[in-house]
Amino acid sequence: MTGRIIGTGSYVPERIVTNEELAGVVETSDEWIVSRTGIHERHIAETEGTSILASRAAKRALENAKVAAEEIDFILLATSSPDHCFPNGACEVQAAIGAVHAMAFDISAACSGFEIALSTAQAFIQAGVYKTGLIIGADCLSKLTDWSDRATCVLFGDGAGAAVIRADETTGIIHSVMGSDGARGMVLSCLARSEGNFLNGKTPELGYIYMDGQEVFKFAVKKVPECIHQVLSESGTAIEDIRYFVLHQANYRICEAVAKRLKQPLDKVPMNIGRYGNTSGATVPILLDQLNREGKLNRGDKLVLAGFGGGLTWGAVLLQW
């Protein structure tokens, strides 16, 4: 028994912020941003929180799968930007969509979150614990962004993507790999809330995203090809059999470098970062939904979903559509 994706959905806020508009907020330009990242614009939430984005993507995934919310056994929300410490975002999604029979919890693995959540869902299904699940990657990074820091504020956007996964006896997830390197975690970090209480007399402070761009770039272009080769090798799958490599959309140059290291043509590495920026845990499911709705995925196609992110974390999932 394996888990098969039977429907996808995505949602981004209506408000689009172009590079030209950002140039009025921080010292930058369209040419500077595009040449370094490939990003032209991003969607930024003005009123919606992470759970609202996630709920709207989830509803679209359920519609696409033709599955009622009451059929969902579990909800996994991969996010680094929940609206509350508790209740968790997955429980808020459960309430919003009416998935009254679902167990729900969040997974925090930054930009690798969707792949790790999908691997977790597969483990539940293989063990016979659950049959039908809803996997969501959603982030509202605009609330964690220092809009005076041009090194980071030009990169991020808000959005959510979702997939319905169901137990299948014939096809679906073939294999997955995951990993982490906590010793290097501070190269990409965001303080949740600092220590503060009546004993130390301090007021808690909230942090913003910090990134050592060069270290993250070097990590990504090395680790993503490695984990893709690992998931293919361990499953006995030839790289030529892969229809698409659906990669975390962090930077055009990273995706380009990964394709080069894999010795694969760039048309097997679809990208939409130009329209959405880096939406963290949402990039892979948003892109997957786009490919699905554009009719680019056919039954039997083999895909590799791969991501990397804060932690440091990484993951790759090999599946058959």
Write the layout of secondary structure elements.
Blueprint: E1 2-11, E2 16-18, H1 19-22, H2 30-37, E3 41-43, H3 50-65, E4 74-78, H4 89-97, E5 103-107, H5 113-126, E6 132-140, H6 150-153, E7 158-168, E8 173-180, E9 188-189, E10 210-211, H7 213-235, E11 242-247, H8 252-262, H9 273-276, H10 283-293, E12 302-309, E13 313-320
Parallel strand pairs: 4-5, 4-6, 11-12
Antiparallel strand pairs: 1-7, 2-3, 6-7, 8-13, 9-10, 12-13
Helix pairs in contact: 3-4, 7-8
Strand content: 15-25%
Widest sheet: strand order?
1-7-6-4-5
Taken together, the total number of domains comes to 2
| Number of helices, where a helix is a run of at least 4 consecutive DSSP H or I residues | 10
What is the tally of beta strands?
Answer: 13
- Cα end-to-end separation: 15 Å
Mean of all residue-level pLDDT scores: 97
Helix content: 25-40%
What brief labels describe this structure?
alpha/beta; single chain; Peroxisomal Thiolase, Chain A, domain 1; 321 residues; 2 domains; 25% strand
